[in-house]
Amino acid sequence: MKFSSPRKAAVLTMSLALVLSATACNRGGDEASEDSASATLALSTLNNPFFVELRDGAEEAAEAAGIDLEVVDAQNDSATQTNQLATAATSGTDAVLINPVDSDAAAASVAPLIEADIPVVAVDRAVNGAEVQSLVSSDNIAGGRQAADELAAAMGEAGQVIVLQGVAGTSASRDRGAGFGEGLAAYPDIEVVAMQTANFDRAEALNVATNLLQANPDVTGIFAENDEMALGAIQALGDRAGSEVSVVGFDGTEAGLAAIEPEP
Predict the structure, then answer these.
(1) Nearest Cα to 19, choosing from 44, 39, 45?
(2) 3-state SS of the chain?
(3) What's CA 140's distance to the chain center, in Å?
(4) pLDDT digit string, tens, across residues 85-95
(5) How many CB atoms lie within 10 A of CB 262?
(6) 56 with 39: CB under 8 angstroms?
(7) What is the side-by-side order of every strand in the sheet holding 38-43?
(8) How far is CA 26 from CA 12, 19, 85, 112, in A?
(9) N or C: which end of the chain has fewer CB within 10 A?
(10) Displacement of CA 245 from its chain's centroid (Å)
(11) Are 36 and 66 spatial neighbours (Cβ–Cβ below 8 Å)?
């Protein structure tokens, strides 16, 4: 099994530290000494180890920067996240870090924050149609291309592939899939025989991969758009994982890195 992509949580945490430090500095003067700066981290879900790592890192960065950080979990529901951002807009928060449930839907949710001159930073996923302060993320298209190269090498540049897609509407899923497709174009003897969402979830990926493998018994490669789905695919494959079928994931979570077979 191979997992492709750097450990993004560490990189994002470092970037968030800079954002949070800037928030503290912007308060300045006597006000900063009397009332510490605050920020809200609006996550799409905490039912995913990657976002748990991201939360933990953000909390460490906030503590180091002297920021009061509130973390809210939308549980993958856009309406819930909209309500959470509305609360943040009226709560006196100094900045908002958003990991959107839906990249398109989030634009309307952050509009009141932007109108109130509250800095908004997108994390891991873009906010489409809104001018946020910054986007902190990996290059998902480049990562998708790298995943295609890694999987092609593991497959001997020939064979059939299944793609497990992430949450529909997220820029991460869209860009990783697009990059993978671009990269795979260089390997004419590799065919994608099935693509289906498993919503970045390990248990769902187990079920989806099991069904797709039954329908496509000659598959020798699986690309999962995050590590959790890759781990679900490995469960579905059993003893075939790494021997008959190569699996490439994306994110570099602790569990994902632990699943990589050492190079011979």
Answers:
(1) 39
(2) CEEECCCHHHHHHHHHHHHHHHHHHHHCHHHHHHCCCEEEEEECCCCCHHHHHHHHHHHHHHHHHCCEEEEEECCCCHHHHHHHHHHHHHCCCCEEEECCCCCCCHHHHHHHHHHCCCCEEEECCCCCCCCCCEEECCCHHHHHHHHHHHHHHHCCCCEEEEEEECCCCCHHHHHHHHHHHHHHCCCCCEEEEEEEECCCCHHHHHHHHHHHHHHCCCEEEEEECCHHHHHHHHHHHHHHECCCEEEEEECCCHHHHHCCCCCC
(3) 9
(4) 999 999 989 99
(5) 4
(6) no
(7) 68-73, 38-43, 95-98, 120-123, 134-136
(8) 21, 11, 21, 20
(9) C
(10) 24
(11) yes
**Cα distances (Å, whole numbers) of residue 112 to 9, 83, 92:** 28, 12, 13
Candidates 24, 33, 90; CA nearest to 63 is 24
Calpha distance 107→109 (Å, rounded): 5
Tell me the whole-structure pTM to 2 decimals.
Answer: 0.80
Crossing angle of helices 106-115 and 78-90, in 10° steps, is 0
60 band by pLDDT with thresholds 50, 70 and 90: confident
Give residue 77's Cα distance to chain centre: 16
Q: How confident is the model at residue 260 (pLDDT cuts 50, 70, 90)?
A: confident
Q: Do residues 226 and 207 touch, judged by C-beta distance below 8 A? A: no
Q: Whose structure tokens read 């970037």? A: 15
d(CA 13, CA 61): 7
Contact 98, 127 (CB under 8 A): yes
